[in-house]
Amino acid sequence: MMEKNHNVSRRQFLTYALLGTGGFMAAGLIMPMVRFGVDPILQADAEEDMIDVVSVDELTDVPQAFDMEYEQDHGWHVEQVQETVWIYLDGDEVVALSPVCTHLGCTVNWGTDPDNPEQFFCPCHFGRFERDGTNIPGTPPTEPLHRYDHEVRDGRVLLGNPSPQV
């Protein structure tokens, strides 16, 4: 068989060398960005995200404020965060509501409006919510209070993240 003579010119060699080097450098720049975007998706976030807040025995059918503490990792530092949550029993079901008004983010309280003692009330803009967190028509909030994902484990209420009720 006859072997072909494959000569590479100096121009072709430099072209291949520059393309290879450029590709290697581009991969070195792009891979950290891809990892940054994909890594949060690959992180497991189920049970360890639930925060133990209160015993079920302490709950009543009247909403009560409970504090929950957790560490929040900002990437460059870890911060200790304390939040309040409204928790009550609706029959046998545990209901956990965020105290953040859905109008402008003020804090709502249970039973502080003398005219409506059985509602959540935002004193800043006079927003009102029913016991289950539903916003009252004609008041500033346009959506219900957010509900926390929760579990009852070994007689304790564990809370996850709040999510809209809409």
From TrEMBL:
Keyword set includes DNA-binding: no
Transmembrane regions listed in the UniProt entry: 12-34
Gene3D superfamilies from the UniProt entry: Rieske [2Fe-2S] iron-sulphur domain
Top-rank lineage group of the source organism: Bacteria
Sample GO molecular function, one term: oxidoreductase activity, acting on paired donors, with incorporation or reduction of molecular oxygen
Record's keyword annotation contains Disulfide bond: yes
UniProt keyword annotations, A-Z: 2Fe-2S, Disulfide bond, Electron transport, Iron, Iron-sulfur, Membrane, Metal-binding, Oxidoreductase, Transmembrane, Transmembrane helix, Transport
Domain called Rieske: residue spans: 82-159
Purpose: Component of the menaquinol:cytochrome c reductase complex. The Rieske protein is a high potential 2Fe-2S protein.
Subunit structure and binding partners: The main subunits of the menaquinol:cytochrome c complex are a Rieske-type iron-sulfur protein (QcrA), a cytochrome b (QcrB) and a cytochrome c (QcrC).
Annotated family: Belongs to the Rieske iron-sulfur protein family.
The protein, known as: Menaquinol:cytochrome c reductase iron-sulfur subunit
Organism: Salicibibacter halophilus
Higher taxonomy: Bacteria, Bacillati, Bacillota, Bacilli, Bacillales
